[in-house]
Write a structure and sequence with these properties.
The chain is α+β, with helices and mostly antiparallel strands. The protein has helices at about 5-25, 50, 90-105, 120-125, 195-200; strands at about 40-45, 65-75, 80-90, 110, 130, 140, 140-145, 155, 165, 170, 205, 220. The strands form five sheets. Strands 1-2-3 form a three-stranded antiparallel beta sheet, with helices on one face. The longest helix is centred in the N-terminal third of the chain and has 18 residues, at about 5-25. The radius of gyration is 27 Å and the shape is globular.
Length: about 220
């Protein structure tokens, strides 16, 4: 029997080992599982500069009484997107409950941007199907009346799929007229008894969809 010294054995086997290693590399460590999507809400203070044209001196609430809520939402594309709402400080907790339930149910929201990005223009925001809250302005279609959005405790959700009809019968946004037929089924529509209306009712907020001139997108703390 031939005996080989350890050094000779190592010299003979090392190239084979290297070749085997190159052909069959060691398995990589398993990637850690991705955390499940979450609302991931963060609340911060705002300034008049942050609010842009959505606020001006003389509004019924000062910037110090408002908060910026950054949170995720499901989109119409089935993906999670970042969103932003400006709301009254007292409205933060109830709305986090509502949008938390919406997120769990994967209720789709087209976009969620502050009204500063639309220069405070409610018609433009509705046309963009934007979900928003604070905006110091008159009621759209009734300039003699202050909108509840001016107080930061009202929110409009998916404005295209949930249009608003003013006292003169005009539809906002105009492109949303097809959605006045609430018998139709489409993503993002709000219906009595769904996750949105149920969560809103749980926090004591009321739905404009039950008004004589319906505002299907609108919810507020005091029903106005």
């Amino acid at each position: 029997m031939i005996k080989l010294r350890a050094r000779t054995l190592l010299a003979l086997t090392t190239p084979a080992v290297l070749l085997l290693t190159a052909l069959c590399p060691a398995p990589a460590a398993a990637d850690a599982p991705s955390p499940p999507p979450a609302l991931d809400a963060r609340v911060t203070a705002v300034t008049a500069r942050d609010l842009g044209r959505s606020w001006h001196p003389g509004c019924p609430i000062a910037p110090a009484g408002l908060r910026l809520v950054r949170m995720n939402h499901w989109g119409f594309d089935g993906r999670v997107h970042p969103g932003e709402l400006v709301v009254r400080e007292e409205a933060v907790r109830p709305l986090l409950h509502v949008f938390g339930r919406a997120f769990e149910a994967r209720f789709p929201i087209r976009r969620m941007r502050t009204m500063a990005e639309y220069g405070g223009n409610d018609v433009a925001a509705m046309k963009a199907d934007n979900t928003s809250a604070f905006n110091c302005r008159a009621v759209t279609g009734n300039p003699a009346k202050v909108s509840q959005h001016s107080y930061g405790d009202a929110v409009d959700i998916n404005t295209l799929e949930n249009p608003y009809v003013d006292r003169n019968g005009r539809v906002y946004p105009a492109e949303g007229a097809a959605y006045l037929d609430r018998r139709r089924t489409a993503p993002g529509m709000i219906r009595a008894g769904d996750v949105i209306t149920t969560a809103m009712r749980a926090v004591g907020w009321q739905w404009g969809g039950r008004w004589p001139n319906p505002d299907y997108q609108h919810f507020s703390a005091n029903g106005r």
